[in-house]
Write a structure and sequence with these properties.
P-loop_NTPase, eight-stranded mixed beta sheet, Rossmann fold, 38% helix
Length: 226
């Protein structure tokens, strides 16, 4: 597991996937903490669309956190409100000078909502592709955190997505998301393990989870913040 923590603490475009409650945001917070220790001048900007007060401490090492609870109140909030708020966050991030990292939590939810409007979808697609393609040379990095993302679309293209590191957390209690991911290109064919093998790896974990990163699977340890 130390290899995974080392991987995620390297500054790189990253997609962290996993079903609800698997510890995606917690794992990301460990990566941010390590990054800030290594590169104190790095500006970490978090767009939090869930705003769960029980998880606010995950962002203790971030420099800027913008929170609004859209996931539970979307019926009371228009899609235009969501778009304008997210666009404002992107504009604010764009104005930051120096090396910077943009983290979007609940990315699955965001892409799902923006897919309902072709203009919003096009805008978000353009933002993602731009950061993935030229962000590294500009010192701007993107982390997406979500259950899964229907990103393998012709608008974005796998050539852009392949730039991202991919981290997947699989809970033995919920393998449906793993089945979906296995139908994508994020995991090479020779690393798509059977359900039996995933269960065996998860059985070695105190939290009953298996983690994939950089071509390797390993049991997930207990992650706790001091």
């Amino acid at each position: 597991m130390q290899d995974i923590l080392n991987q995620i603490s390297q500054l790189h475009h990253t997609f962290i996937a996993g079903s609800i409650g698997t510890g995606k945001d917690l794992l990301a917070s460990f990566g941010v903490k390590a990054l800030k220790q290594q590169q104190p001048s790095l500006t970490v900007y978090v767009i939090d669309l869930k705003a769960d007060c029980k998880e606010n401490y995950y962002d203790n090492c971030a420099d800027i956190v913008r929170r609004r609870n859209f996931t539970r109140m979307i019926s009371e909030t228009s899609l235009t409100d969501l778009f304008n708020w997210v666009k404002g966050c992107f504009l604010e991030f764009a104005q930051i000078t120096g090396k910077k990292l943009l983290i979007i939590t609940e990315a699955t939810f965001l892409f799902h909502k923006f897919n309902q409007d072709k203009d919003y979808k096009s805008w978000l697609t353009d933002q993602v592709v731009t950061y993935l393609c030229i962000g590294h040379s500009a010192g701007a990095y993107l982390w997406l955190i979500g259950q899964n993302l229907n990103l393998e679309s012709k608008e974005i293209g796998f050539s852009s997505l392949s730039i991202m590191k991919f981290v997947l957390i699989v809970s033995a209690d919920n393998l449906a998301n793993y089945d979906y991911i296995c139908r994508t290109l994020f995991i090479p064919k020779n690393r798509k393990l059977s359900i039996e093998k995933i269960n065996a790896i998860a059985a070695e974990s105190p939290v009953n989870r298996a983690v994939y990163s950089a071509g390797h699977w390993s049991p997930m340890p207990v992650l706790t913040h001091a």
